[in-house]
Amino acid sequence: MSVRLALLGLLGRQTSHGYRLKHRYDALMDPSGVVAPAQIYATLVRLERDGLVRQAGMDQESGPARRLYELTPLGHAEVDRWLTRPVEPAPHLQALLYTKVVLLILAGRRIEPFIDMQRETHLARMRELTGLRLSRDVATSVLAEYALYHLEADMRWLEAVASQVERLTKGVAGDDERGGRTS
Predict the structure, then answer these.
(1) How far, CA to CA in Å, does 165 sit from each of 95, 146, 158?
(2) Residues 62 and 29 placed together within one structural domain of the fold
(3) CA torsion sign, 134 to 135 to 140 to 141?
(4) What whole-number distance in Å separates Cα of residue 68 and Cα of residue 60?
(5) Which domain holds residue 73?
(6) Better-predicted residue by pLDDT, 80 or 102
(7) pLDDT tens digits for 90-141?
(8) Chain centroid to CA 158: how far?
(9) By three-state DSSP, how is residue 53 classified?
(10) What is the percentage of the chain residues whose pLDDT exceeds 70?
(11) Residue 176, CA distances (Å) to 102, 106, 115 in order
């Protein structure tokens, strides 16, 4: 997710300062709070430099004086352009889970222990997300549900791989021996 575009979108509704934007970003986009405040402020500086936001005064009501930002016409156009385009489905043709399975096979290791461990890891994360899904905060609940659906898809894929270990092992090992893809 682009922090830049998310901040532009958040500013599309109302002027705001960095501290409030960080709070809104965490509440609506990423409840884990992994985006550092410094990243928010650095992004605002770049957006201002690029002519997408401008200073709209100072907020001195709640604590220290804070710069308020608003979108420029160019910023509004950028947000409109981004929001009106569909999100391209990620092809997932290069995925870390798949890569590990293939490399385990090529290393001559059994993939079943990895699949079991990965199932446990996914189930633990799914339990955490199920708790978040029950949150009273609608944005957090919907975001947790989105993540759960993706984890469920991974679990289905892990089950499919587990059911075709022999076939997959022959295919990957045979591909390696021929130096290319099998047909």
Answers:
(1) 18, 29, 10
(2) yes
(3) positive
(4) 10
(5) 3-83
(6) 80
(7) 766 657 888 888 888 887 888 899 999 999 999 999 998 998 888 778 888 8
(8) 21
(9) strand
(10) 91
(11) 10, 8, 22
